[in-house]
Amino acid sequence: MIRNLDPRPALVTAVVLLGACAGGDASIHLTWSINGVMANADVCLAADAAWVRIVEDEDDDGTVDQYYRQMACSEGSGETVRAFESDKPTHVAFELGQLGGTILARDPATGFMAFSPDEGSNNMSVDFTVP
What we know:
Elements: H1 8-22, E1 26-34, E2 37-38, H2 41-47, E3 51-56, E4 66-72, E5 77-79, E6 90-97, E7 103-107, E8 113-115, E9 120-128
Parallel strand pairs: 1-9
Antiparallel strand pairs: 1-2, 1-5, 3-4, 3-6, 6-7, 6-8
């Protein structure tokens, strides 16, 4: 019996399926700062911050329905997959947190902000306030 051991067809299928799971034609490219200073390793360490997360409230009920990307705070920027639909307004928020999962800051501080994405990458920025 001859078996095809070439992993490429399976890998291509997996990539196509992951792209389909993203479900949209728009992404968020987020940059962030902490207390007015662009995030880097030193700024995040001083704030005891480990990650930044983008969360979404799809049905506008005030609760997180899902999160799209958790990025290292020290990176200062990151982008989601194309998970949003350009013709479907939604609500998003951004969270800054510690390794243990504690949220240090959120923007907006309460609730979510309305987001009507354009097709492709949507640039957004946030300045987290941390005491």
